Each structure stands twice: as C-alpha cells, then as structure tokens.
Amino acid sequence: MRRPLLLSCALLLAAAPLAAQQQDTARPPGIRLTTRYDVATRTAIAVRPFSAPPAIAAVADSITTILQRDLEYSGRYNVLPVPGSLLSGRVDYRQWNALNVVYLVTGAVSATASGYELALTVHDVVYGRVRDEQTLRLPAATSGEFRLAVHAASDDIVRSTLSAPGIAATRIAFTRKNPRSEGGIYTYDVLVVDADGFNLRRIGGASGQIYSPAWSPDGSRLLYAVNTGGGWRLVERELAGGQVRTIDVGSSMVTTPTYAPDGSRIAFAAWRENNWELFEYNIAENCCLRRLTSDRADDISPSYARDGSRIAFMSSRVGGMPHIFVMPAQGGAALAISPYVHGQRGYYTSPDLSPTGSEVAFHGHWNSRGTYQIMLADAGRPGGQVRQITSEGANEDPSWAPDGRHLVYTHAGVRGSEPGLYVIDTATGSRRPLATGSAGMRLADWSPPLLRAAQLR
Amino acid sequence: MLHRAALCLLIAALPLAACSRRQPPAEATPEIATRDTAAERRDRERLEQMRRDSIAAADRAAREAAEREITARATSVLEEMVFFDYDISELRPDAQTALGRKVPILRANPNLRLEIAGHADERGSLEYNLALGMRRAQSVKDYLAGFGIDAARLTITSYGEDRPLDEGSGEDAWARNRRAEFVITAGGSPLTLPGS
C-alpha cells in the first residue's frame, strides 16, 4: 500500500459502489465513499538533504539524519532513499511521483545569532503542491535541546501529513541499578533518554533503591519512590532546576506513584493495615489524602486513563495471584481484565493505560512455567481478548508512548539481543533497542510530548 | 615468720571480699625491715590496691567475655534468616522454628528492637516483588507478635528482589533469596539470654 489514500478512493469511486450498497441497503442508492485505515500502512516519504552554507553543512546533515530516523521510528512511513539526481534543485513533482513518493520534505538551514533557522517545506507529491511550510528556530547544536527541537519538527511533519501524533519530541525516564560496589553497596540512578535513543543522561541518583519513575503530564517533573533505608518515600524532581522534594503522605511505605492527567493529584500504593492499598493525594495543595481501595489483598501500580475517569492497577485479590483490574478513579467496583483460568497460576502485573484509548499494556505469564511477556487488553471489555505482543526472552514493565501505539519495556536479553530497554510498535510488531548494555536498566516511563513546533516559530 | 604473721593480720583487716578470693602469693613478700614505718604501710597498701585492681579487672574481663559470648549467641539467633516458598508470604514450618528461637531473647531483652526486611527472588515484576517482600516481613512480624512481643518493637521494610543473597539464577539461588532478614536497630548490646 505505497500509493496514497487518494488513489484508493478514486478506485473506490469507480469500482466499489456496488459493494458499498450491499453493505448498507438502508441508504439511498448511489456512490458512497468509505476509507479504511490500516494502522500498519506505511506512507512513502522522502527527506531531501537540507541545503545550507558550507560552514554549517554538517549541522544540516545531522538535522536531515535526525528527521529521517524520527520518521522511520514513528512506524508510519516508508522512508525512501533520495536518488543522487534529486539531491538539489527545484522540486519536480513528476520525478518524485515516479519514485512512488507521497510526501517530500525539503528544507534549508541558516545560521542565526543564537543557533539556526530551519525553513521546512512538506510537499504533497500526489497533489503536486506544498502541503505545509514553516520556519523554525533551532538552538545551537551544542545545546541539550537542539535535538529535541529537530524532533519537534519531525512530529509536526507527522501531524501535517497524517494528522497523527508524533513521538519524536519525547523522552523516556528509567532507573538503573548499578553493579554492586566492592563494599557491597548498590547504587541507583534516574536516567532520561530521547525517544530515538540519543542524549542519554543521568539526572539523579541515590545510594538506595529508586523505583517507578513517572512523568508529570506537562513533562516538567518526575515522581519516583526511593528507599535509602528505613522505608519507601515519594520524591518529586523538577527537571529544569533539579529541585527535589519529598512528598509526605503520612506513610513510610509508599511505592508505584503516578500522576493524574491534571497533574495536581497523584495516585500510589501505600502499606496500610498489613497490606498494600491505593491512595490519591493532592500534591498541588499538599492535602486531601484519599483511600481508593479497601481489601485484604495487595493493590499496587495505579495508572490513570487519559480522561482521569478510571484507574488500572494490579491486585492479588483473585486467588492470591497478581491480576490486572480497572476501577473508577474514585475507587469502587473493580473488573479483572487479565485472563483468569482456574488452576493456572497466571501472573499479570505492571499495567499502563493507553494515553489515547482504553488499551492496557502489562506483563505476565499464562502459567508458572512461562516467561514474562508484554500483553495488551481492552480496559473497557473485561474478560475480552488478551494479545501477547512479545515472545523472545523475558519482557517486562511496558509504558505507552503518547501516540498510544508504541511501548517501551525492559528486555532481559536472549541469544543475539542485549538486555536493556526496547521500543515496540504494537501496530506492526517491529522492535528497536532504545538503551542497552546494562541489565540494570528498568522501569521505563514514556514522557508526554515535550516540545511542539509551534513553540519554535 | 614474724613478718608473715604481721602481713596476715593486715590482710585479715582488709575487706573480706578481697581476702577471701585468693591467698597472696608467697614470693610477693618483700625482704623488708622489721619496723612498721609509715612508708612501709603505704607501700603495702599500694601493693594491696594493685592486687585488688588486677583481680577486679580480671573479673570484669571474664564477665565481659561471658557477656560478649552471650550477646554474640543471642545476636546470631536473632539474625538468623527465614526462607519462603515461591510467591508465598506464609511461613514454612522451618521458618516458624527459627522464629520461635528468637522469642525468648526478645522477651529477655525488652529494649531490643528489630527491623525485619522482606526479600524476593528475581522472578516476577520488580514492583510486585517489592510488595511481596513487605508481605513476608509482615508475616514474620505477626508471628512474633503472636507470642506477645510488642509489635512496636518490630519495624518492617522490603527490598524486593534487589538484594540477593545469591547472585546466581536457578532454584537453589532463588530459594536462598526468598527470605526475611533481621537487623537489630536498638538495645542489641549487651543482650541477655533467658536464664543466664
């Protein structure tokens, strides 16, 4: 399906009216157009190397490369190579059309006092016209935000060509358990990496455990659980300034925090009355602790739906084994969505609700002999079908990208693949390593979009 | 002989406790003049004080050694780990036996406080294993509290799967890693054993 939707529609016009009529006999006879969107469709796109004065040719090259890779990683395009004869000059749509290119990206980079200007043009080759044109200000290439700005340009191409959310201008936060020191001490780091796997950096650490980092909905803060001895507490870190504060929720045993979509409230698990229960707390006003669950089993790992109406979480309330449940965000009747088969020791944990729909990603195994794999279930249909999307090695702790299509997860490593964090496209099943080389990298959380092209105009 | 008799009289006048323990060694008798001068008396008193001090020091050392021995024995009983079955927080019979040995020590040392830390093996999710470790620590605490030990003396925590006793993979390593560990947080030095 390299040809554009338009062409498919034209064919439908000519050949499909009969079929359409048969499907919908209640409508008056005539021509009806339908479009079928296949998520696995990859639209052909080409990025022509951006032009630039010789002094900044290297910068232009890297911008081109970053953009091409971003578009590839979006999973939505077939990024075609640019033939040598079309590397520069006036854009001739017939020539690009002959290469089956649907969208073409061209651009010019120039130096400014504070960085660069990228004049970016998106061409609709099929229609033979410019689809989008804008000039973006990029910071200096030495700036930590340079790549993020290019990623934002990429996301804007996804938006303008496919009206879909891009995920290039996002980051993934995770923790790393470092190898034991000679003194027998384990140290832990919090790290952040760009969605394309570049720009990996440590933003904090502790000589004790750090678990479950979570991005604030505006992308400015991280919340995580820390145990430096004597129990677990919640810590919130401002990413820009590095300020850290402990959130006192009146318990010395608090884990698996997450933000509600409005960013003012958080949910977490705390040890209360001899088991783990879910709570909500208002961090904007430091008040209003509210208990969300009340049972004798363990309830941990809450994850909010994008509209804040529901929470997915893990509970051991059925047969003492961990299962995935969904309940109203204020608490109440919880419905199991992971498969329960009596007599089988199924084990399902670490749910994450999709930011765009109602799919819950989690990991688990069907019986006690299986390895842990990433699975998807519909939060709106308890007892519905569960889709297993990984099968090689052990895979754990999935987190959705803001496009609701990609997941980051921990891969324990098998023959031919290194342990670390990987990204999978749930629409196509294709995978890529994000950050590898250490078995201690884990508990990844994917950020919301961190920068938009509109902020660079 | 006269000197010796005089010395004996002197010793008899000393506090009974010191005299009753040991006869003074014969070679300690100095070859001194027969006259009982003030200087001689001072010398004798000084010598006697030294002997008493050394006896007291020996007693103290023996007492402390015994105390250390008892404390070490009690500590090793208190710190003895207990182990769990896979994904289970209920106590096995061997764990109950090991915990039963801690009870008299906890009773005999009312100022003693313990931290109970639950651990899990590497299988399963990090977050769930953290939860499971806490449940294991709670099982231990409940069991000890069932013997009348004040629950306020027992704090609990969990490290999940992050602090393996055995870094290996496989059932042997896992079995050693599913455990509760004990740390004496207060009142651990010295300890007494019941009946000692």
The end-to-end distance of chain A, rounded to whole angstroms, is: 34 Å
Task: Please tell me the overall pLDDT of chain A.
Answer: 91
Helices and strands of chain A: which structural class?
Answer: mainly beta
Strand percent estimate of chain B: 5-15%
What is the strand arrangement across the widest sheet of chain B?
1-4-2-3
Low-confidence stretches of chain A: 1-24
* Percent range of helical residues of chain B: 40-55%
Q: How would you write the strand order of the largest sheet of chain A?
A: 2-1-3-4-5
Strand content of chain A: 35-45%
Number of helices of chain B: 6
Helix content of chain A: 10-25%
Question: What is the total tally of β strands of chain B?
Answer: 4
pLDDT < 50 runs, ≥5 residues of chain B:
7-20
Strand segment count of chain A: 29
How do the SSEs of chain B run, as a string of H and E? HHHEHEHEHE
General shape of chain A: globular
Identify the quaternary structure here. Answer: heterodimer
Report the end-to-end length of chain B measured between terminal Cα atoms: 46 Å
The biggest sheet of chain B, with number of strands, parallel, antiparallel or mixed sense and barrel status, is:
4 strands, mixed
Task: Explain what you see.
The complex is a heterodimer of chains A (457) and B (196). Chain A is mainly β and 457 residues long. Helices cover 13% and strands 41% of the residues of chain A. Chain A has helices at 5-15, 17-23, 57-73, 93-98, 146-162, and strands at residues 43-47, 77-79, 103-111, 115-124, 129-139, 171-177, 188-194, 201-206, 209-215, 221-227, 233-238, 244-247, 254-259, 265-272, 275-282, 287-291, 299-304, 310-318, 321-328, 335-336, 347-353, 359-365, 373-378, 386-388, 395-400, 406-411, 420-425, 431-436, 441-446. A five-stranded mixed β-sheet of chain A has the order 2-1-3-4-5, covered by helices on one side. A four-stranded antiparallel β-sheet of chain A has the order 8-7-6-29, with no helix packed on it. Chain A has a four-stranded antiparallel β-sheet with strand order 9-10-11-12, with no helix packed on it. In chain A, a hairpin with a 5-residue loop joins strand 21 and strand 22 (359-365). The longest helix of chain A is centred in the first third of the chain and has 17 residues, at 57-73. Chain A is globular, with a radius of gyration of 24 Å. The two termini of chain A are 34 Å apart. Mean pLDDT of chain A is 91; it is low at 1-24. In chain B, helix 5 (126-145) links the parallel strand 2 (113-119) and strand 3. In chain B, strands 1-4-2-3 form a four-stranded mixed β-sheet. Residues 7-20 of chain B have low confidence and may be disordered. By secondary structure, chain B is an alpha+beta fold. The two termini of chain B are 46 Å apart. In chain B, 53% of the residues lie in helices and 12% in strands. Chain B contains six helices and four strands. Chain B has helices at 2-13, 16-21, 38-79, 93-108, 126-145, 171-177, and strands at 82-83, 113-119, 154-160, 179-186. At the A-B interface, strand 9 and strand 21 of A face helix 5 and strand 3 of B.
